[in-house]
Design brief:
By secondary structure, the protein is mainly β. The chain has one domain (24-89). It is 12% helix and 31% strand. The protein is built from 1 helix and 8 strands, in the order E-E-E-E-E-E-E-E-H. Strand 7 (55-57) and strand 8 form a beta hairpin. The radius of gyration is 15 Å and the shape is elongated. The model has no long low-confidence stretch (mean pLDDT 80).
Length: 89
């Protein structure tokens, strides 16, 4: 069983345990609801993100703040799947 310590408000923490991997948000430490879908080395970034830090792209993609910024620069407002974008090196 996997367990994680997750931030709960400004001063508190909670312990969360379950069958699946439980991850805190990469940016703030709160419970992560999403993983970044940006393509990286044959897979995806998979940075754990809470609702506040996940950028929703289209209906089914979520990006971390860094990849959301790259996406916005490359797509110039046009909604496309992250897999269709050129990766920045």
């Amino acid at each position: 069983m996997a367990c994680a310590v997750i931030k709960n408000g400004e001063d508190g923490v909670i312990f969360v345990c379950g069958k699946h991997d439980i991850k805190p948000c990469k940016r703030c430490g709160f419970l992560a609801d999403y993983l970044c879908d940006w393509p990286v080395d044959g897979g995806t970034c998979d940075a754990a993100l809470c609702r506040s830090h996940a950028a929703n792209i289209g209906e089914q993609y979520d990006l971390c703040p860094i990849h959301a910024k790259i996406y916005r620069r490359q797509s110039v407002g046009e909604i496309r799947e992250p897999g269709n974008l050129k990766l920045v090196k």
